[in-house]
User: Fold this.
Amino acid sequence: MMPQMPTLEEVIIEPPAEGVIVDPMTWFDTPGPFELEIGCGKGGFLLHRARSHREARLLGIEWANKYFRFAADRMARWQITNVRIMRTDAKTFVMRHLPPDCVSVLHLYHPDPWPKKRHHKRRLVQADFVEAVIRVLKPGGRWLIQSDHGEYFDQIRQVVAARPELAEGPWDELADHDATDWGGTNYEIKYAREGRPIYRAAYRKVDG
Ligand SMILES: C[S@@+](CC[C@H](N)C(=O)[O-])C[C@H]1O[C@@H](n2cnc3c(N)ncnc32)[C@H](O)[C@@H]1O
Assistant:
């Protein structure tokens, strides 16, 4: 039987109310490994990932209303059945609303670097967020990080390296990106064109 094509209303998931722990599989017709993209922008990566990994059940979180709308609309137009989009603050969502051991892959590509020193506290990846990521990843689950900002990337690596629950591994093996029609995320394409280096790190949650 052909899967039901999603309407825009079905693609969009409302952020949970205070105190609610979600069950992501209830958003999809059939279950599969749950993947989360934080800051999905216009949804280019999600579209690619959904089509190259049909078994995955993906949620894209985006704070900016314009991009959130664009991404959700894109999924409905392309009749993508395995992606849902939510407009919320990803940090709150991961820390307060996801159950433990539920995420197979966490995608974090070009998180806002907040380059000014006085704004560093606004950066997403800090010790408390890493703690939450460890909690929500399944044993063996993967966290893929990509950035164009060397200083923020170094800080991310330092804070993650402090946690023995996360083991760094080879990007190509852990990212498992299908390169056939993949040109990169919007920011990756933009910055690669400018000749900026792109930094990548891939981690796996250690079993047990
Ligand atoms: C630099 S852009 C990268 C977009 C996309 N990942 C890419 O590589 O092209 C960062 C995105 O993350 C979103 N964002 C930043 N902080 C967020 C948060 N706390 N929760 C949800 N989205 C967030 C921004 O609105 C923006 O669209």
User: Anything to note?
Assistant: The chain has a mean pLDDT of 95. The pocket of S-adenosylmethionine is lined by residues 39, 41, 61-64, 67, 89-91, 109-110, 112, 124, 185-188 (CB under 6 Å).
